[in-house]
Structures are given as C-alpha cells and as structure tokens.
Amino acid sequence: MAGFRMHVTVSTALGIAYGAATVRPMGFGPETAVLATGLTAVGGMLPDLDSDSGRPVRELTSLAAVVAPIMLVPRLIHAGLSHEGVLAVLMALYLIVRYCLPQVIGRLSVHRGMYHSIPAMLIAGLIVYLEYGSPDRHLRIVLAVGVMLGFLSHLVLDEIYSVDINGIRIKLKSSAGSAVKLFSESWGANLACYAMLGVLLFLVWVDLEQNPPAGWLTGHPVATVENEHLKHVRIPRTP
Ligand SMILES: [Zn+2]
C-alpha cells in the first residue's frame, strides 16, 4: 500500500498539472487554477479517511473542516444570508466536520472498504459540484473533476502498490484488486454507497432542472456569459 506521504506528493503534482491545464488550454483564471490544484491534492487523501491510524484522518478532517465551509460561501451568499449569518454557519460547520465527523467515520468504515472505490470517487466529485454553488457551471465541473482526479490517483497508487514486483514474476498480494473497484464484500456498505450516489445524482438532476444550462430547453446552444466561447460557433439556419 502506498503511504500517506506518497499519496499527497502524487496528488499535489497532479493538481499542479491540472491547475495549469485549467488556465491553458481551458481558459480559466489563476484563482481557479489554485482552487483546482488544492482540490486535486485533497482528493488524493480522501480515500484514507477510513484509515484507523491517526495521522491521515487528523490531517484530513482539519483540512476538510476549513475547506468544506469555504466552498459553501457562494451558496450562502446566494441564499441571502447576512454577513453574520454566513459566519455563524461557517463556524457551526467547522465544529461539526472537525469533531463530529471523525467519530461517525470511525464507527462506520472498514479500511479499504467502499471508501476505496469508483462510486466513492463519483460521490466526492458530485459533492464538490453540488456544494460549490457558483453560477458558472463549467467552473463547478472543473473543480469536481479535480477532486475525482486526485481520488483516482490514490486508488491507482494503492492498486499498484498491492502488486509486488519480485524479479520477473509479478506476485499479487492479498490486497490486490481491492482499491479500484465497484463493490466491496459488505453488502451493507455497497447499499449505503450506491444509495448516497443515487441521492446525489438526483440532487444534480434537481439542480439542472432549476437552472437549466443554456440551450437545454430549445436544444440549441445560446450565447450567454456561461458559454461565451459558443459565440463564434455558427449554427446553420433552417429555411
Ligand atoms: Zn488508500
């Protein structure tokens, strides 16, 4: 199994490359690049939230306690909360994530159970997409992809490190094939994981219904701030 330090190093390097890609060729600003880099780096640590050993969980919950409330700021402002209201929500969230979440995770998880799986990766991406309530949908997608990229790098690293290269013979360790997976042995965990994925997909659908992307109803792309780049795309007129 790859160690915590290796996961952080790889996902941070990946995050820097991804952050650079958001500026060029994707055309976002440097702020987005920094956010995308940070989220990719954090994504690479997320699967080890299920680890029983103290350090990854401590580091992650401290980080999540700061990052998760900050990500919610655009939504809170959009909801019309006062300055003090926003601060109160942020403080309450910090306390919940920092002190209550580790207890819940400790009780529910088995190391390298469903936290190390493809559906868990999708859940992380969907949470970021839903939580970051920016009107710019492309930005939300970019950030969600960032966290999923980091997550995937963790799964792949765990997978590689469960393969022991011994001379020319590649011997599979007992933990091989247990990181990049769709199901675990525990049906309860599978059910909980897929139920959560289902709920999040439903929320994304509700979100899309409430703010349909430009061209969603007419079937034709419409030039808006959100898809400014389509302004130069010619749509053939039907006679
Ligand atoms: Zn792991």
Overall description:
It is built from eight helices and two strands; from the N terminus they run H-H-H-H-H-H-H-E-E-H. It has 239 residues and is mainly alpha-helical. It has one domain. A hairpin with a 2-residue loop joins strand 1 and strand 2 (169-172). Helix 6 (118-131) packs antiparallel against helix 7 and helix 6 runs parallel beside helix 8. The structure holds zinc ion. The site of zinc ion (ZN) has 5 residues, from helix 7.
How many helix segments?
Answer: 8
- Pick out the low-confidence regions: 164-171, 218-223
Name the hetero compounds present. zinc ion
Number of extended strands? 2
Quick structural overview:
This protein is mostly helical and 239 residues long.
Distinctive features:
239 residues, mainly alpha, two-stranded antiparallel ribbon, binds zinc ion
Topology overview:
Elements lengths: L3 H20 L6 H14 L10 H18 L1 H6 L4 H26 L9 H14 L5 H25 L1 E4 L2 E4 L14 H24 L29
Helix pairs in contact: 1-2, 1-7, 2-7, 3-5, 6-7, 6-8
The site of zinc ion (ZN) has 5 residues, from helix 7.
